[in-house]
Amino acid sequence: MSLQTRSMERTSAGEKQQTWHQYRIFIEEVNSLIGSALVEEFRNDNENDVNPNIIVGNGENLPRGATKLINAADPKELGQIVLDCDIVIFHQNYCRAEYAYKLLKHGQYQQTKTFILISNPMTWSTTPLKERKIDETAIRQSMGGDTEDQPIFKKYDKFTENDLPIRKINFLERLKHLEQQIIVCDKPQLHAYIITPGLVYGNGEDILYDLFKTAWMTPDAELPIYGDGNNIIPMIHVNDLANIVNKTVTLTPNEKYIFAVDYENMTQKKLINTIAKSVGNGFTKNVTTATEKLLTINVWLRPTQVFESDDQYIDANKNPIILWQSKEGFTKNIIKIREQFKQYRGLDTVKLIVHGGTTSGKSNLCKQLANFYRIPHIQIKPLIQELIEQQSELGELVRNTLTQVKDQLVAEALAIFEAEKKKKKVPKGQPEPVFDPSGIQPRLPDSVLIQVYKWRLDQNDAQNLGYVLDGFPKTLEQYEKLFLNEEGQLIESIKPKGVIYLEYTDDQLKERAKQINDNPRYSEDLVVKRLANFRKNNEQLLSQYEQLDIKRISDSESAFEQTKDFITRNGPILVLQDVKDEEVVQMDEQQDDVSPSPQTSSIQQEKVAVVQQSQFQQSQVGPKKKGDQLNKSINESRQSKDNKKLTDEQKQDLIRQQERELLDQRSQPLRQYLADNVVPFLTEGLINICEKHPENPLQFLADFLEQKGNELQALGQ
């Protein structure tokens, strides 16, 4: 495929002439987190369908908006593409980046080209923080300039791009050498830049993926904080990084070294706590071993100002050059970031209401669905009990309301008891009747009950995975207060995706109630009364449910399978299956709005399994590589069961594959170490051998490496 730059003009009636310029762009690793964001940033086929930008890159799959995949491991093919492109962007393989830069540096071409190297914040990790001057600290405090509670932000100053000469690098030598070459680049036809980002987050996540996955999938997880967690971590949303790269290409600033970080002063502790509270259960723990190096860096970088003059910077908020998505940083945008993670990883939610009369089997079906999809089963009794035991504002409201309601009910019942007692004389020899309030169970009024349910639906597990509501709402008024906002629109974050209606006649439900023995709640009189209340509100509620999506089921034996078919009616979804060998309750225990008694529950062992992957996930552009890590981790937990069905040969192949993946993962740090510290000098020695053809090449190479080592040692490297 020949890459050519063209300009075309469009005119139409009543419109001004518009010129489209087509750029040829190479982006490294287009399927990675950064690569996919760069493709989305530079693609313009949605605006210009005549001669859109030609985007070429390497990777496993051709993303939407890209034109062609190449084999970047082939120097000849990579070299041809690099010399043929207008814009070349590298962010991962610094050996190939150096090769591409040298081609552009020494190549012959007429048109101007741009080379972008997205560097690594670890290049600043061994540079001590820049201490703030005492007089400057006093001035800032007097002017109220310090707004951070952490002492570390009051003691130090941010690094700027002008501090590059004082940076100290004790590793990543190859990257350092490449950066030095780019900074001194003086070729008129080549605009070369280094963009150093903070820790990159957003979309499907990369560095923070394991933290998100653990918080998402493990209810009792404690996210690790390395050391005291007070180290400063610069950060940037991947889409903001892509926009800064685009602005660098477009505006061609004079500065060659640019920071790409947001405006939040972030520490490791603050970062982990934000993920724990907004994605998981809020629990953290301190550890002594770090699993991710970037979480241990202690670097404070100032957001770049190279695109704005001193005069423009005052009005930057009104007329921003960088189109920020998360300018304020990670913490203030965590809800949006959580939704991006769900979207890019194809983690669809299951949000259902199970509706039906007493003894229709609601609780049994809800329990099966909650186990299979691993979603919260929301029942009124356990929910109220949880809040009663909770030291929170809502918990206090529930406790006080139940006490007030019960006191009122007791007073009314006592008045009736005393009145009846006066009417009836107690026969001689018979004991006086005693008033017993223990059987009086208070119910929460709807005003408080709706607050309770809204609180539960806003919890992280319900937001991340979904929920199944057991027999609530019971009236149209409850539905509207729970799911509709002041404008009468469904609240997007908690709205149900469907309703299961267990549809049986009154006679069928009464017959089922007769099979429940030794339970006064299912006496004939109470069942008749409850069914009458159910029918009274049912028609209006069903009319509302029809506007959502409703599945009517009248066969208890196939209810679970029919519900699964209903859930996947619009395509398969990623589900977590709960495999248990336990008996389920056959009859529904209708949950009343009363104060429950504390109950104990046994700890159950769960296994997770992937049923099918979301079609939405397959169509999205994002950091989705073959063998997505989330799906891979779920599949691994199921292998112990699946291995029983495999042949011996298949088992051996599976084991070999697992060993290869493990070895590849463990060897990554060593390979990076060799690439940074050994390969450059070994390559230089081999080039000298090819040029000089010594009689003893091995001895020549050994002498060369020894001489090189002495030179580096003399330079203090």
TrEMBL record:
It comes from the Eukaryota. Residues 638-651 have a biased composition (Basic and acidic residues). Pfam families: ADK (PF00406), Dpy-30 (PF05186). Residues 608-621 have a biased composition (Low complexity). Residues 593-605 have a biased composition (Polar residues). Keywords: Nucleotide-binding. One of its GO terms (molecular function) is nucleobase-containing compound kinase activity. One of its GO terms (biological process) is nucleobase-containing compound metabolic process. InterPro entries: Adenylat/UMP-CMP_kin, DD_AK7, Dpy-30_motif. Coiled coil: none annotated. Residues 585-651 are annotated as: Disordered. This is Adenylate kinase. It comes from Paramecium primaurelia.
